[in-house]
Amino acid sequence: MPRITAVPATEAGPFLKLFYRVARKRFGAVPEPMAIVAHHGKLLRASVIHELLVEKAAATLPVSVRELAVYRTATQLGCSWCVDFGTMLQRLDGLDIERLKKIDDYATSPAYTEQERLAIAYADAMTATPTSVTDEQTAELEQEFGRKGLLELTYLIALENQRGRMNSALGITDQGFTSGDACRVPMP
Questions:
Q1: For 152, phi and psi rounded to 5 degrees?
Q2: Using one digit for the tens of pLDDT, what is the confidence trace for 47-71?
Q3: CATH match for 63-170 among 3.30.70.660, 1.10.730.10, 1.20.58.1120, 1.20.1290.10
């Protein structure tokens, strides 16, 4: 149970009601982290705008590389909400979510491409405390994905670290996006 309750729709103002309606249509349920941040309207607006802008801007890397790096970050942080939501997003993108069960063996598993392995290893290095990213690692990633791709990957992993750490601090856990009644979003 979260440490702060979500703002219920019955107490929502016009903007929040609109946000809740759009979120339910898009994801099948209102994401709990956003419903909790709704207690601070300006931060909610900033967060929603930021997430939408990042979604539009992050178009350099292959979708599977992006999503696997973010998913791996969530698993390393132990953010069950992020893992739940991230699995749903991968499913909606038409990616093979069964291979997520093998992510701990990514380095040797044939379920992952070399690009995906590089991105997952980078997520591990960035998420470690302290970070363990090396010059050689960033050089290899830049050679593989280009400078824009490296920057996109770095940004997305850092953003997922922020999301996961915030959810953990607030006690937000999985919401049922990948199972149960909350996941009403159809397959692609």
A1: -60, -45
A2: 999 999 999 999 999 999 999 999 9
A3: 1.20.1290.10
